[in-house]
From TrEMBL:
<keyword id="KW-0853">WD repeat</keyword>
<dbReference type="InterPro" id="IPR015943">
    <property type="entry name" value="WD40/YVTN_repeat-like_dom_sf"/>
</dbReference>
<feature type="compositionally biased region" description="Polar residues">
    <location>
        <begin position="209"/>
        <end position="220"/>
    </location>
</feature>
<feature type="region of interest" description="Disordered">
    <location>
        <begin position="170"/>
        <end position="232"/>
    </location>
</feature>
<dbReference type="Pfam" id="PF00400">
    <property type="entry name" value="WD40"/>
</dbReference>
<comment type="pathway">
    <text>Protein modification; protein ubiquitination.</text>
</comment>
<dbReference type="InterPro" id="IPR039085">
    <property type="entry name" value="DCA10"/>
</dbReference>
<comment type="similarity">
    <text>Belongs to the WD repeat DCAF10 family.</text>
</comment>
<dbReference type="InterPro" id="IPR036322">
    <property type="entry name" value="WD40_repeat_dom_sf"/>
</dbReference>
<protein>
    <recommendedName>
        <fullName>DDB1- and CUL4-associated factor 10</fullName>
    </recommendedName>
</protein>
<dbReference type="InterPro" id="IPR001680">
    <property type="entry name" value="WD40_rpt"/>
</dbReference>
<feature type="repeat" description="WD">
    <location>
        <begin position="72"/>
        <end position="104"/>
    </location>
</feature>
<feature type="repeat" description="WD">
    <location>
        <begin position="30"/>
        <end position="63"/>
    </location>
</feature>
<keyword id="KW-0833">Ubl conjugation pathway</keyword>
<keyword id="KW-0677">Repeat</keyword>
<feature type="compositionally biased region" description="Low complexity">
    <location>
        <begin position="170"/>
        <end position="186"/>
    </location>
</feature>
<dbReference type="GO" id="GO:0080008">
    <property type="term" value="C:Cul4-RING E3 ubiquitin ligase complex"/>
</dbReference>
Length: 385
C-alpha cells in the first residue's frame, strides 16, 4: 500500500520482490509454496498473504522473509483469490473447490488461525469485496455473477438461510449451495476454462423462503445475474477476471466465449435504489462500457485493473497492455454514463513483452504501472500523456 515493494506471484512456487522506484530485485522466496503461486494481497504495509495451487494460504512479514508467519489450511483445491476486510481484520479466500473461507487473523498463531466455510458455489472463478466491504461478488466459469448484499462476514450461511433476491435470465439451483455443501474442483487457470451452460429456474424452496421475508433486504441476501456481454447473447461465456472500482461505483469483468473465440472487457455500473418489492430489487448491474480484446493466449486468465482514482483501466492486450478510459479525456465514470453501452476509449498502448501479458497493476500512489507476461518478464512503466 505504501508503494515500497512490488510483489510478483510466479507459476513455479516463487514470489519475487522488487523495489518499484529503482526496479531492483530485492528478494526471491524460492519455495514460497509447493505449487504455483496465484495471488498476493497486502493486509497492511508489512504483512501480506499469498495463495497457491498447493491449497494453502501463507502469511508473510516484510521484516522477516526467511520464514512464513504461518500457513493456513482449509481449502481442498487450488486457492485463487485473497480479499481482506480492514474493519474486522478478517481474511477472505476463494478457490476452485468452490469455497469462500473466512480466516480470523485477530487470533493468528504459528499453527494458523480460526476459520470457517462462508459460502459455496460450483464453477467459482473469482471473488471480490467492494471497497466498503458491503458486498461480495463471485464470478463463475458458467457465466453467472453472484452478489451477496449487506454483507456480514461474521454470520454463518447455512442451507437455505440466505434469500435469493433476483435471478436474471436463467440459473440452476444446483449451482448455488450453502457453506455446508461440498463441490467439485473448478477449472485451472492454466488451460481452457470449463464452460457450463446450466438451465432451470430457482428452486421453489428458495423462492418461497425469500418471498416470506418482509421489510428491507436482510444481511447476506443473494442476487444471481447473467451479465450481458456483447456478441454473446445466444452463447454462454466464462467470467475469468473480476475487479471492483476503487470507489465502489462499478465492477470490471473480463469474459470469454464458451468457444474461446472472443474475449471482452466490460464495465457494469452498480444501480442502487429502493427495490420494486422488498425481496425483488431491480437488477444491480448495468452494462455501460465494453471493448473487444485480442483473444490471444487462449486458456490463460488475464487480470486487469482500475487505476487508483478509477478513471482508467489497464488491460492485458496481446504482448502488451492497453490503457482504457470511459471517454477520451479520462473522465470520471459518473460524469460520462451513457444511456446504452458504449465502447471504452483506448488512451495509450504499451508494448515491451515478447510473450502474452497475463497481469497488470497500477501503483497505488504514483503514476506507474507494472505488467507481467507468460515467460516471466516483469515490466514497469511511467506513461506520459
Amino acid at each position: 500500500p505504501c508503494r515500497s515493494v512490488l510483489t510478483v506471484a510466479c507459476e513455479q512456487t516463487e514470489v519475487l520482490l522488487f523495489d518499484p522506484i529503482s526496479s531492483k530485485h530485492i528478494k526471491t522466496l524460492s519455495e514460497a509454496h509447493e505449487d504455483c503461486v496465484n495471488n498476493i494481497r497486502f493486509l497492511d504495509n508489512r504483512l501480506f498473504a499469498t495463495c497457491s495451487d498447493d491449497t494453502t494460504i501463507a502469511l508473510w512479514d516484510l521484516r522477516k522473509l526467511n520464514t512464513k508467519v504461518c500457513t493456513l489450511h482449509g481449502h481442498t483445491s487450488w486457492v485463487k483469490n485473497i480479499e481482506y476486510d480492514t474493519n474486522t481484520r478478517l481474511l477472505v479466500t476463494s478457490g476452485f473447490d468452490g469455497n469462500v473461507i473466512i480466516w480470523d487473523t485477530n487470533r493468528c498463531t504459528e499453527d494458523g488461525c480460526p476459520h470457517k466455510k462462508f459460502f459455496h458455489t460450483r464453477f467459482l472463478m473469482r471473488m471480490r469485496l467492494t471497497p466498503d466491504c458491503s458486498k461480495m461478488l463471485i464470478s463463475t466459469s458458467s457465466g453467472y455473477l453472484l452478489i451477496l448484499h449487506d454483507l456480514d462476514l461474521n454470520k454463518s450461511l447455512e442451507v437455505g438461510s440466505y434469500p435469493i433476491l433476483r435471478a436474471r435470465r436463467t440459473t440452476s439451483s444446483s449451482d448455488i449451495t450453502s457453506s455446508g455443501s461440498s463441490g467439485s474442483s473448478g477449472p485451472r487457470a492454466v488451460g481452457s476454462p470449463c464452460h457450463q451452460n446450466d438451465s432451470g429456474p430457482l428452486s421453489e424452496k428458495h423462492m418461497s423462503r425469500s418471498s416470506q421475508r418482509e421489510g428491507g433486504s436482510p444481511r447476506n441476501s443473494l442476487e444471481v445475474l447473467t451479465p450481458e456481454v456483447p456478441g454473446e447473447r445466444d452463447r454462454g461465456n466464462c467470467i475469468t477476471s473480476l475487479q471492483l472500482h476503487p470507489k465502489g461505483w462499478a465492477t470490471l469483468l473480463r469474459c470469454s466465449s464458451n468457444t474461446d473465440d472472443q474475449e471482452w472487457t466490460c464495465v457494469y455500473e452498480f444501480q442502487e435504489g429502493a427495490p420494486v418489492r422488498p425481496v425483488s430489487p431491480r437488477c444491480s448491474l448495468r452494462l455501460t462500457h465494453c471493448i473487444e480484446e485480442a483473444n490471444v493466449g487462449r486458456g490463460y486468465i488475464k487480470e486487469l485493473c482500475f487505476s487508483p482514482d478509477g478513471r482508467m483501466i489497464s488491460s492485458p492486450h496481446g504482448f502488451g497492455i492497453r490503457l482504457l478510459g470511459f471517454d477520451a479525456h479520462c473522465s470520471e465514470l459518473v460524469d460520462c454514463l451513457p444511456k446504452e453501452a458504449s465502447p471504452l476509449k483506448e488512451i495509450r498502448s504499451l508494448y515491451s513483452h515478447n510473450d502474452v501479458v497475463l497481469t497488470t497493476k497500477f501503483s497505488p500512489t504514483h503514476c506507474q504501472i507494472a505488467s507481467g507476461c507468460l515467460s516471466g518478464r516483469v515490466s514497469l512503466y511511467q506513461p506520459k500523456f
